[in-house]
Amino acid sequence: MIALHPFSARASVNQAHLRIMETTDLHVHVYPYDYYADRESDTVGLARTAALIQAVRAESTNAILLDNGDFLQGNPMGDYIAYERGMNEGDLHPVIQAMNALGFDASTLGNHEFNYGLDFLVKSVAGARFPIVSANVVRKVGATPRQDETLVPPYVILDRELTDGAGQRHPIRIGLIGFVPPQIMNWDRRHLEGKVATRDIVEAARAWVPQMREEGCDLIVALSHSGIGSARHQSGMENASVPLAGVEGIDAVLTGHSHLVFPSPAFEARELVDPKRGTIAGKPAVMAGFWGSHMGLIDLMLERDGNEWRVVDFECEARPIYRRGEDRSITPLVESVPAVLDSVRKEHEETLAYVRRPVGQTTAPLYSYFALITDDPSVQIVSNAQKWYIAQMMQGTEHEALPILSAAAPFKAGGRGGPDYFTDVPAGAIAIRNVADLYLYPNTIRAVRVTGAQLKDWLERSAGIFNQIAPGSSDKPLLNPDFPSYNFDVIDGVTYQIDISQPSKFGPKGELINPEANRIVDLAHDGRPVAPDQEFIIATNNYRASGGGDFPGAKGDTIVFEGPDTNRDIIVRYIVEQGTINPTADGNWRLAAMPGTTVIYETGPRALDYLGDLKDLRAEPAGETDDGFLRLRIHL
């Protein structure tokens, strides 16, 4: 038995219940599969979201399905199509095949649609059996936005019929207009410069929405591939959904880009944003997570007044495909829809072969057994890729003359993960799935601008992982077990030593405990001491740059670049472009010498295979722990 929504049960003559469903930031996640880890996943996949969509359609008299962009890029299937198989005229992109199978009514362009270039984008969207719109990406700029020649249509008007509560059918014109962050001109400059331009999101909306009303739109929905940011409009803002919602004539807003869930208890209230009611500037709005994790749903109660429809009530929600338990366990709430899986089964199998096949070569093994005692190849390759990417992004900006450094931490370095929880990729062929071993989290790239003083304190914060060791002591434990390895940032591009005979300046959570302490010594750039007022760009990730770990210089106020790409994707691109990588650690940091002093460092048993790689430290086995870690005696 299908339960009617209260709006459907309540609708009377000249009243109709319309359900607007949203997907956003799919990033080619059709299958419930993590290609990097090469295993199934219950937290992703349009095939799972499809079950929610089918359920809503089954209980609805009137429903439309819309996508909010970022569908072409973002996982190895997208890279496989772009870099390996290619898109020829008439080819169907797998995510478009899946969206066609599910019967989308329309979509907009997200910023990642441009990652592979305009030719790839145009060929990919040509196969869509639904309109794709975007009002602020322009091939030829006119005197006003309404005179622009846009890359795709700025909007579309769907002529539909709604069945009211009495069973009578009435015409309705539903207008859909799309927007993308203007920052695509920076993020994909090499693909877009000289070919397209962008308009400010709100400027474009103010121009086109009145025209849509002139053409008889009863209802206008903004497909805003833009986050929920400040209520104050600034020209060119990336996250413009709040001022966009304030544009007269827009009735509802689908948001995305930020990979968040709205409405949701986790979303903080801010000016003009109600995360409980699900409104922005008083209008219904949703953001459906990312990778198919949720389906956004706006229920509208519409009333017909003469020949016009108006919104008299609404409800908003974001329905998940899984539930996360207090113990972090994952319980799937739906099963995959076979028709969606079948639509891309061939490309899924080809992607599995692709991620398992070498995409490059590494001249040295990538392992993390010694990542907490010496410069490490598994961290080095992450730093190399981040610097490579940010160097391109800084070109043509006010920051391009500044030295570019890179901060990266070892994610798999034993600890609570156990004695097998280490990266270990042998020299030779390297496959895309190996990247998950190098970079566990789906973080996105950021760059911050810091002073020399902030740089030093950033490193002092990292150095808190070490216990204070008295000179001449024997076999004291080296590491503070309360300090997670992912907060041990190594910063490449400078040289330094860590003097662990000194107390730590910061505690495990970043709290200042010894203001005068100095563990970081001989900090230099290009062979010269770093001055406190010297400035640098540091490549890092969104977690760190926004305050994760509470690092000096990374509290959210120093960010100068927010990239759309995940750090994982950047590593893959770097490997593909380089062909052969040399991840040998460059030895830019070391523990300061303490003659006659030994410490005990716990690592994985397979570290024995690489003991000969330790250049600046003498180490010898000192037994195993009860839980299987290898104990190494390190001579400082």
TrEMBL record:
InterPro entries: 5'-Nucleotdase_C, 5'-Nucleotdase_C_sf, 5'-Nucleotdase_CS, 5_nucleotidase/apyrase, Calcineurin-like_PHP, CpdB_N, Metallo-depent_PP-like. PROSITE patterns: 5_NUCLEOTIDASE_2 (PS00786). CDD domains: MPP_CpdB_N. Residues 422-554 form the 5'-Nucleotidase C-terminal domain. It catalyses: a nucleoside 2',3'-cyclic phosphate + H2O = a nucleoside 3'-phosphate + H(+); a ribonucleoside 3'-phosphate + H2O = a ribonucleoside + phosphate. The keyword Repressor does not apply. The keyword Ribosomal protein does not apply. GO terms for cellular component: outer membrane-bounded periplasmic space. It is found in: Cell envelope. Coiled coil: none annotated. GO terms for molecular function: 2',3'-cyclic-nucleotide 2'-phosphodiesterase activity; 3'-nucleotidase activity; metal ion binding; nucleotide binding. Keywords: Hydrolase, Metal-binding, Multifunctional enzyme, Nucleotide-binding, Signal. Residues 18-259 form the Calcineurin-like phosphoesterase domain. It comes from the Bacteria. Belongs to the 5'-nucleotidase family. This is 2',3'-cyclic-nucleotide 2'-phosphodiesterase/3'-nucleotidase.
